[in-house]
Amino acid sequence: MRAGRARVRPHGRRHPAGTVEASEKGWITVGNQPLDIGANDSADAYDAVVFGGGIGGTAAAYVLAREGLRVLLCETTGTLGREIVRGRNQFADLPRYSEASSAVREFFRYLTLRGGWFDGEMDPAAAAVAFDSMMEQVGADVLFQVWPSKVCAEDGRITGAVLATKTGYRSIRTTKVVDATGHGKLARSRFEGIPNPDARTVLHVLFNGSEGDCETERSWTADGLGVIRASCRATYWPGERRISLCVDKFVSRSEWMLRLPSVVPELKRLFPSLSGSAFTYVGDDVWQTPCLRYRTGSVDARAAGQVEDAEGRPYDIRRNMLGDPLRLQGFAMAGYWLEGMPFDPAQEERALMNAFRLGELAGRSLLAD
Question: Annotated Gene Ontology MF terms (predicted)?
């Protein structure tokens, strides 16, 4: 295995290799060594580029880099593992799932080392460090606050990718690309989008200073949202309660924010334990089933591996769900927007673990190409 390299991080964040900064010319500086990812030299050549630093993208990058590939992981926000870190999804039986997933196993190991495991619950701050540690261990480079623009192909094979940065566009030479973005931003330009009648959105909010036990699920009807189902869980902090708000449609975080002034009083009315508490936090990301799902059109139905269905039974992921090497070799998809992917954001634990597994399967599929 290669020794870990300095990870590329903009905006002056501290890193063991030194201060990483973004200059006015659009260069990324690691310590005193400038790296122009648009230059025509070896600095912009990667064996694989993964777009999306959520759970699936991080798992895919881990699998690819672990096998010795030079990997670049691109994330639009400032943290990896956004579904846990930003979305406040934090309940899962990691020891059980570690037995079947190397990515979960490594994440769990680093989470435990950072003191972020509380017998069934994860500390989101420690989870962010655990995801960073996974990438550093296998030597994957990470770029934050960059956006996918397009993939380039010739004769049915990936030849590169284009990133959108705050200072312009940058091209990367690569033969392997994973689309692990939240809504299939690259997949939509290559494959067919299908309206999803099962769109669903979950937002997590926190209250502090609560007294008494969490009540069971409550629901009410709100104009423009329909039926809102709310469930309460105690976190590891005394007096803290996490409320999960679920609706059967796509609702953006900005729309949730506009409606929270009317939602919070209703929650305190429905959950007596919240009556004297303070509303303290809104998840930075919503956890959602997208409005569109994507299919490749491939007839390659070989099994790529398994996730879990809604009842917890093994569910086969096929090679044609992840990509179509006959039409576009070197491109894999790792998102819950895949057609047929068993994903329900209200099933928190299963959704989190399926994201890990799907990323692993996408990485393995590219290793087999």
Answer: 4 iron, 4 sulfur cluster binding; metal ion binding; oxidoreductase activity
Residue 264 is part of a domain; what is its CATH number? Answer: 3.30.70
Token couple for 20: 């990483």
From residue 71, give the alpha-carbon distance in Å to each of 30, 248, 350. 17, 37, 27
Length of the chain in terms of residues written? 369
Residues 183 and 65 in one domain: yes
In a domain, 16, yes or no: no
Q: Which of 264, 289, 314 is the last residue of a domain?
A: 289
pLDDT along the chain (369 residues), means of 10: 41 30 33 39 80 98 98 96 95 95 97 96 97 97 95 94 92 97 91 91 96 89 95 94 95 94 95 94 92 92 94 95 92 95 94 97 94
CA dist 260 → 17, 204, 245, 283, 348 (Å): 42, 12, 11, 12, 22
- What span, in angstroms and rounded, lies between the C-alpha atoms of 52 and 54? 6
Enter the pTM of the model. Answer: 0.89
Q: Which of 116, 185, 198 is nearest to 149 (CA)?
A: 185
204 domain residue, yes or no = yes
User: 3-class DSSP state for residue 328?
Assistant: coil
Q: How many CB atoms lie within 10 A of CB 293?
A: 24
